[in-house]
Amino acid sequence: MPFGTWGEPREILDHLLEGVQVVDREWRYVYLNPAAARQGRSTAEALLGRTMPECYPGIENTPLFEKMAACVASGRADRMLNAFEFPDGSTGWFELRMTPVPIGLMIMSIDVTDQRRIDARKQQSSRLEALGRMAGGVAHDFNNLLTAILAHVDFAELAGSSAELGGELQAVRSAALRAASLTQQLLTFARARPLTSERVDLADAVGEVSPSCAAPSAG
After folding, report:
1. Given this model, what pLDDT does residue 159 score?
2. pLDDT for the residue numbered 215
3. Which stretches within the chain are classed as H helix?
4. How far is CA 210 from CA 40, 91, 149, 150, 216, in A?
5. What is the predicted pLDDT for the residue at 47?
6. Secondary structure (DSSP) of 6-34
7. pLDDT at 165
8. Distance between CA atoms of 212 and 152, rounded to whole angstroms?
9. Residues 105-134: b if buried by 16+ CB within 10 A, e if exposed
């Protein structure tokens, strides 16, 4: 039965929210419902009677066209997620189901572009969250090393260094403080929680940064 004389079945297809298009074996459009025309950013009048390569130059070199040709040749239905580049350079994503029919091929399509954008934003957010956690962990560890460096500088100054060595120690202190400032920026980026206070053994802590100052062991 010609596609123009379907009657009620055609009316049903015309009102589907899912895109439906039929092409013959020469890839000429013989039917499009309004949803398919909107998805292609065109009209049925502009596409019917013309081939897909005429309407969308270059489509014959795409994985989509290869998949359609294989579907027609094998006589087996297939499906794919297709990224379609429009003439203006923008990209739309469509879930396609391709079914061979006597005249050629029927393609049913669902526009999932918005969902793809939402998924991409979620993935980006997850990556940033993971990067933030990593940055926070590195910043905390580096902050501990800087604390030890500054403690050694303090001990060296208390030991009575020469004037020349005192200048070097000040340079070390200045560099360590600048590095500490960077770690705070990392922590801000990571949105790390403030460090919580906890009781520590002062003698043990001093011993870790300066073994010579550790409390003597009993016996």
Report:
1. 66
2. 43
3. 8-14, 34-39, 44-47, 52-55, 63-74, 113-158, 163-190, 202-209
4. 72, 62, 10, 11, 13
5. 93
6. --HHHHHHHT-SSEEEEEETT-BEEEE-H
7. 63
8. 11
9. bbbbbbbbeeebeeeeeeeeeeeeeeebee
Structure tokens at 126: 């997850």
**pLDDT at res. 53:** 94
- Characterise 75 by phi-psi region: left (phi > 0), alpha (psi -120 to 50), beta (else): left
Q: Are 30 and 106 in contact (CB under 8 A)?
A: no
Q: Give the span between the Cα atoms of 81 and 95, in whole angstroms.
A: 5
Q: Cα(78)–Cα(100) distance, rounded to whole angstroms?
A: 9
- The secondary structure of residue 89, as a DSSP letter, is S
Token digits for 87? 């003439």
CA-CA-CA-CA dihedral for 112, 56, 13, 103, to nearest 10: -130
Residues of the chain with pLDDT under 70: 1-8, 159-167, 189-219
**What are residue 90's phi and psi, to 5 degrees?**
-80, 165
CA dihedral of residues 25, 28, 34, 35 (deg, nearest 10): 60
Rounded to 5°, angle at Cα 40 from 122 and 74: 95
**Model pLDDT for residues 33-69, shown as the tens digit of each residue:** 999 999 988 899 999 999 999 998 889 999 999 999 9
pLDDT at 167: 67
Rounded Cα distance, 150 and 171, in Å: 11
The pTM (predicted TM-score) of the whole model is 0.53
